[in-house]
Predict the 3D structure of the following.
Amino acid sequence: MTVKIFIKRKVQDTNVAELTLLLTKLRALALSQPGYISGETYHRIDKKDECMVIGTWRSLEDWNRWVNNPKRIEVQAEIDKLLGEETEYAMYSS
């Protein structure tokens, strides 16, 4: 059963360039992670400072292995530090 992971972040204009580099790094790491299917990034229309990444994973177990990957944790910590708050995650299945 595939799962969708909704990842919400609040981004200030001053952080966009640096955040884009970190997200690109994170996505590159995810591409080599077993179970990763795809990822899409959206920017909220009515709240310019909010973006949503929707990741598709083969299983919740694959996602959990990725969440606990030390390289991912390192990049995610940089993202949270840059944004000044923790990233929000929500997991869904069909």
Notes: The longest strand covers residues 3-10. Residues 19 and 79 are 7 Å apart (CA to CA).
